[in-house]
Amino acid sequence: DGNSFYCLSNSGTKLIKNLDPIDWAQRCQDNGCGEIMLCSINQEGTMLGYDLDLLKKIREKITIPIIITGGAGKYKDFLDAFNLDVACVSAGSMYQFTKSTPSEAKKYLHINSVLIRDSYKYE
């Protein structure tokens, strides 16, 4: 079907053959997993945004919470992920290599109607 997604282990050094990440997420949910932490290695550290295509495909298959990581570079990346129904976003490089702050991210999300912890501070 043209799916270009694949699963890796061992810090991205070992390809897990015959395992599609979308099917894997479904299997994890079916076996009692309470949430998925989704990271696209191709996006990790790039600050070019999360892998929203992969997120959409996995969200279509599962109902458990998804935490997305790998690629955030601006506050809009958070908003894009929340608009696809993630439970949580994660960012590292964005805070290490830019002047972005968690407080400003919360303000941005609050202004854009995303309810998050401490958003009451911005009303």
Model description:
With 123 residues, the chain is α/β, with parallel strands linked by helices. 33% of the residues lie in helices and 13% in strands. It contains five helices and five strands, in the order ββαβαβαβαα. It has helices at residues 21-30, 52-59, 75-82, 93-97, 102-111, and strands spanning 7-9, 14-16, 36-39, 66-69, 88-89. It has a three-stranded parallel sheet.
The residue-averaged pLDDT reads 92
Strand content is 5-15%
Structural class: alpha/beta
Secondary structure: helix percent: 25-40%
Q: Uncertain segments of ≥5 residues (pLDDT<50)?
A: none
Reported for the largest beta sheet, the result is: 3 strands, parallel
Please state the overall shape, judged from the principal axes of the Cα atoms: globular
Distance between the termini: 47 Å
Strand order of the largest sheet: 3-4-5
Cα-atom radius of gyration: 15 Å
What is the succession of H and E elements? EEHEHEHEHH
Total DSSP helices: 5
Number of strands: 5
